[in-house]
Amino acid sequence: MTEEENIDINQQLDNLLTKVQPNLQDVIKRSFTNVALQQTKNGEQVKPDALEDTSYFAKNTQVNLTRLELVKTPTFHMQTLSLDLKSMGLKLRCSLGEVNVKGLYSAFNENLYNLLPVMAEGHLLMTLSNVTADVDVGLVLEDDAYSFINPGIDFTHDEVLVKLSWPSPQRGGGYEFATTEQLARHIDDLPLTAAISLPLYTLLREKLQRHLALVLKQSTSVSEVVCCNPSLLEAYSAMVDSLAKKGNKIIDMVLIDVRRILFQTHTEVLELPPLHATFMHKIGSISFIGKFETDTGWVKNLATINRINDVSVSRIDDATTSFRVTLRIKDLQVGYDEYRMKAMGVSCSGRLAATLGGSALHLALSVGLTRLEPYAQLDDLRLQQMDGMDVHVTGLGPLSGAARGVAAWARGAAAAHAAPALARRLHRALHRALHHLPVRHCNTALKNNLYD
């Protein structure tokens, strides 16, 4: 193919993508609603959507949360959608309405004394009203349909209402409810949503991603988009490959520098504050109060961070290009070299370590020109997923029945302490890496060749 023919094919492709985009956008909107209706008609929820046991730690407050599950599966309702076939990107906003989580809690906190028994346990109902999801994904060609990569999904909501109940002697062993407004008079803060927001949003994100994958599979045909023209399909595939290769090269340069910075500055291991937990250990009908505490903990292997798929690249304007990618810390571990536990007059000690196989981070950055000066900036780094925790505890011995509680405390510590510390450390490393990025060279290459 001559250079003149190649230019003509690229121009035809540009014109075609501009022409078909509005119609395809409408088809995706209709399919989004149809998939929601299909699931409503077909799906009887056999098993409730459950969250793993966890704990909330803040100051001298400790709340254990167990048997957590969604009251009902949310339905996604499309509000807005924007499609860009040239940059291979899709943005949408959908509504989930009200999301309710129920479960059991046990609270051990002297600050609760004026309101609850010091050792209080009962039922929990948490309501997030008017939940919406802003979705930004990259598109890829898969067989004859579009699929998506690098999902950036941000949840927002209005009021959060937490209801707690506990056994009430006044009601003959029934349950009495109180809201967080009442609890707030007696403790500084009890944001129980902080304990479940990461696993809850992970669950909702997975459901939304399955919904969107089905929508794209049912509603999009790449061959129809290019009118079954082999030359246009070849040009389209080449354009998509070019976007990914250039994006991969730049992000890989950044990540190589991030790993180097973590190693050279000895910052790939993070320190975690000690854990202190009080718990109720039951043997038959008899309950014993137990204590659990650790020395300083750690998070390690941050330098195993890497991308797991191609980079999504989009041109914001003539001077700015955006990159989005999904990252994973391959061997992320959280642990405490020594813990001590005592209950019913029995003591034990050992080591606690947990491997998180399901970590996922969403990275967005941009390069561009401002007043003819090149720049690179970090737009977003968000820990979207931190699950798949495999917990190993040594030395439990006669208190082996508390193993489930120890795992819940480890999850709580990962959410409350490890996740924010990890994000802060990677933010600093990324800022330094972007400072070293040869932005002028990258920007020139992107400007000249991005959509060639």
From TrEMBL:
Superkingdom in the source lineage: Eukaryota
Pfam families, per the entry: Grp7_allergen (PF16984)
Protein name: Uncharacterized protein LOC113520805
Organism listed in the record: Galleria mellonella (Greater wax moth)
Organism phylogeny: Eukaryota, Metazoa, Ecdysozoa, Arthropoda, Hexapoda
